[in-house]
Amino acid sequence: MVNLHARMRKLKALLDIRLGPGAVVLPHDVKRLHMDFAIKFNKGHFGARKFWRNCLPRLKYHNPAISMTVNRTKDQDGPASLTVFFAPPARSTSATSSPAPSSSTSSNTAPSEHTPFDRTETIDMKHIWDSEIMSLLMTLTKATPVIATPEEEAELEGMREDNDMRRQDALIGAKHREKLREEKALLDQARGAVAAE
Q1: How far is the C-alpha of 84 from the C-alpha of 117, rounded, in Å?
Q2: Which residue, among 141, 120, 138, 99, has the nearest Cα to 36 in the 3D structure?
Q3: Dihedral Cα 87, 88, 92, 94, nearest 10 deg
Q4: Which residues, in sequence order, are CB contacts of 158 under 8 Å at separation 6+?
Q5: pLDDT tens-digit profile of 139-190?
Q6: Rg of the Cα trace of the chain?
Q7: Which of 48, 71, 190, 191 would be a feasible disulfide site paired with 125, CB 3.0-4.6 Å?
């Protein structure tokens, strides 16, 4: 059975999905987010890929009712875009709309009209960092960031301290192992010299 402390540390890592970049609540008029970018990060797709990895899970956690689709293509020269679909005012019948696929890797998939929408806005994600993409999305949608409670801040600080201690322990262990290797090499060299005589 795994150490209880290690299990609790992994459980507290779930706190990371509740807070951090991408932990925002989108307004009710946002009905869908659709991302298009290349599978590899070169040629300007690095920010889109980081946004997908770091921010999108938190966005989905705080906005489970909003459909978020991702289309990853093999075309490195293609666009990297985030399309925000806004609902029509008040009379949205999203209960009758069909569900959207969560991801796609085909190059010919365009955002389908599975949810009725009033307007769309597109953010060009090519050659910009994930933090800038997040700030553009927050400005465009007027999203509200999730603020950590004092208890969550204390837990985060405890996790940071624990991680720092583990890093220091790893460095100490590495130095000790290096010292043992050097001593063993010296002993082997001395034994070899004695055997040669």
Answers
A1: 10
A2: 120
A3: -30
A4: 12
A5: 888 888 888 788 888 887 888 888 888 899 999 999 999 999 999 998 888 8
A6: 25
A7: 48
